[in-house]
Design a protein that fits this description.
heterodimer, A: seven-stranded mixed sheet, four-stranded antiparallel sheet, B: mainly beta
């Protein structure tokens, strides 16, 4: 069974960079779209973007200038970097595995809350 | 404002059938892109219940079904159970702005 586990700082200061890692176990990185999705407290889901295992990426236009998603196949890890954060970036961040470029995700991590505050 | 529009809430009694709508436009559902549906219980990550508009992942009961027509899609749940009370989100792909994945705003299903 594939398992995904997000990790990273729970508190980030405004204007700094949010960095999260998703460790994938029980399955291969190859063949999938590795996706980050976030959910502000009490609100709906927002797609951040994905990294396809061969190296292509697709990002939410509203975040494109600030976000980078990468994959380290040797470590079976997916990373998210979001620059110049503000309080509006406070959310639970989920890592997910997608079999298709259309965006659906069949396995999700438990999510990690990141709060942006000084 | 979400690209896909869902009603904020729906409700139904145990045993009843409820539907949740997801309305898009010509750049997403209307362009032929599939719709996917997730169930999210409080404090847990979303769970895929329908993918590619009408396919159920293994383990999802056949009480869950979905359809798509024109620029809209809908999720139907029959034989409503208390455990179905959750937030439901639709998802699709939008071709605007170089193409990206979009979610609906979510619908809270209450089992009366």
């Amino acid at each position: 069974q594939v398992q995904l586990q997000e990790s990273g700082p729970g508190l980030v200061k405004p204007s700094e960079t949010l960095s999260l890692t998703c460790t994938v176990s029980g399955g291969s990185i190859s063949g999938y779209y590795w996706t980050w999705i976030r959910q502000p407290p009490g609100k709906g889901l927002e797609w951040i973007g994905y990294f396809y295992y061969i190296g292509s990426t697709n990002y939410n236009p509203s975040l494109r200038s600030r976000v980078t998603i990468s994959v380290d196949t040797s470590k079976n890890q997916v990373s998210l970097r979001l620059n110049s954060v503000t309080a509006a970036d406070t959310a639970v961040y989920y890592c997910a595995r997608g079999p298709s470029s259309s965006g659906w995700a069949d396995f999700w991590g438990q999510g990690t809350l990141v709060t942006v505050s000084s | 404002q979400s690209v896909l529009t869902q009603p904020p809430s729906v409700s139904g009694a145990p045993g009843q059938r409820v539907t949740i709508s997801c309305t898009g436009g010509s750049s997403n559902i209307g362009a032929g892109y599939n719709v996917h549906w997730y169930q999210q219980l409080p404090g847990t990550p979303p769970k895929l219940v329908i993918y590619n508009s009408n396919s159920r992942p293994s383990g999802v009961p056949d009480r869950f079904s979905a359809s798509k027509s024109g620029t809209s899609a809908s999720l139907a749940i029959t034989g409503l159970q208390a455990e179905d009370e959750a937030d439901y989100y639709c998802q699709s792909y939008d071709t605007s702005l170089s193409g990206y994945v979009v979610f609906g705003g979510g619908t809270k299903l209450t089992v009366l």
